[in-house]
C-alpha cells in the first residue's frame, strides 16, 4: 500500500508514546513525554484536531517502505499504529494550525520518526497538507525551522515554501537559543514538483469552496440576531 495522509485516530497513540521518548520529537508535543498510551490518546483527542481551524494529518506508510526504502513495497496489512510488525503504520505528522480565515493565513509544522526519513515522505505530506489548506480558501501558509536544521529547510523548499527571512534567537531549548528561518507559500505561487501524498480513502473529502466553514468548537456560540433587536 502506498504512503498516504489521513486524520489522526485514537488508535495511533502508541506512535506518540514512542516518539515522545525522543528529545527532538518531544519538542513537537510541547516537550511533553507521555507516561502511557492513555495519555497519548488524550493528547490526540485534545490537540490533533481536524476541522476548519486546525488540521493534523497523520502520515502513514508501509513498514516495508520504511525499513528498506522500496517505494510501493509490501502487502495489504492493517492500518495499525504499533512500532513494529507488518502492515501500514503512522510514521509522522503534518499540522496546519492557527487557521485564520479573515486574512487567510495558517501555520504549518511537520515531523517524521527517524526510520521514515530520507524517503521524501515529509515533502510529499507537506505538499498534500498545503493543497488541502488552499482548498479551504487560505491564501498564505507559514512555517519555520531552526537554522541549524538543513533537512527541514530542504523539505520546506521542495514543497514550494520560499524562505523569507531569519528571526533571531526565536526559540529556546534548555539554555540555548536558536535562530529560525521563516518560509511561506501562497496559493498564487507556482505548484512545486513534489507530488502530494494521496489521502487515505477513509479521509474526509476535500472541502467544496462554496460550502460554509465549520465553526471553531472553542469559539463562543453565534450571537442570536434577536439579541441586537432587544438591545443586548
Q: Tags for this entry?
A:
8 strands, alpha+beta, 8-stranded mixed β-sheet, 28% strand, Aminopeptidase, disordered C terminus, globular, 232 residues
Provide the residue-averaged pLDDT. 82
Can you tell me the number of structural domains? 1
Rg calculated over all Cα atoms: 19 Å
Which stretches are low in confidence, meaning pLDDT under 50 for 5 or more residues running? 67-85, 208-213, 219-232
Number of helices: 7
Shape: globular
Which CATH architecture would you pick? 3-Layer(aba) Sandwich
Distance N to C terminus: 57 Å
CATH superfamily: Gcn5-related N-acetyltransferase (GNAT)
Topology as a string of helices (H) and strands (E) = EHHHEHEEEHEHEEH
Care to count the β-strands? 8
Description:
This protein is an alpha+beta fold. α1 packs across α3. Strands 1, 2, 3, 4, 5, 6, 7 and 8 form an 8-stranded mixed β-sheet that branches. The protein has a single domain (4-202), classed as Aminopeptidase. The protein starts with a strand and ends with a helix. β7 (162-173) and β8 form a beta hairpin. The chain has helices spanning 13-19, 23-26, 37-47, 63-68, 121-135, 150-158, 225-229; strands spanning 4-7, 55-62, 79-80, 88-100, 105-112, 140-146, 162-173, 176-186. The radius of gyration is 19 Å and the shape is globular.
Write a short abstract of this structure:
With 232 residues, the protein is α+β, with helices and mostly antiparallel strands. It contains seven helices and eight strands.
Amino acid at each position: 500500500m502506498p504512503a498516504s495522509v489521513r486524520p489522526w485516530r485514537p488508535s495511533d497513540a502508541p506512535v506518540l508514546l514512542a516518539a515522545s521518548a525522543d528529545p527532538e520529537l518531544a519538542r513537537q508535543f510541547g516537550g511533553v513525554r507521555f507516561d502511557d498510551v492513555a495519555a497519548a490518546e488524550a493528547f490526540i483527542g485534545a490537540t490533533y484536531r481536524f476541522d476548519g481551524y486546525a488540521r493534523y494529518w497523520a502520515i502513514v506508510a508501509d513498514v516495508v517502505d520504511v525499513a528498506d526504502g522500496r517505494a510501493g513495497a509490501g502487502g495489504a496489512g492493517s492500518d495499525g499504529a504499533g512500532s513494529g510488525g507488518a502492515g501500514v503504520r503512522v510514521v509522522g505528522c503534518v499540522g496546519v494550525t492557527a487557521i485564520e480565515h479573515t486574512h487567510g493565513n495558517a501555520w504549518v509544522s511537520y515531523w517524521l520518526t527517524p526510520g521514515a526519513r530520507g524517503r521524501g515522505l515529509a515533502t510529499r505530506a507537506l505538499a498534500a497538507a498545503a493543497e488541502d489548506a488552499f482548498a479551504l480558501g487560505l491564501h498564505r501558509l507559514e512555517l519555520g525551522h531552526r537554522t541549524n536544521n538543513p533537512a527541514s529547510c530542504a523539505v520546506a523548499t521542495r514543497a514550494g515554501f520560499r524562505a523569507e527571512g531569519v528571526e533571531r534567537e526565536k526559540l529556546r531549548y534548555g539554555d540555548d537559543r536558536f535562530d529560525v528561518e521563516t518560509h511561506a507559500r501562497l496559493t498564487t505561487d507556482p505548484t512545486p514538483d513534489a507530488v502530494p501524498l494521496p489521502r487515505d480513502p477513509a479521509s474526509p473529502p476535500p472541502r467544496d469552496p462554496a460550502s460554509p466553514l465549520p465553526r471553531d468548537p472553542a469559539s463562543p456560540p453565534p450571537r442570536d440576531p434577536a439579541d441586537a433587536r432587544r438591545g443586548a
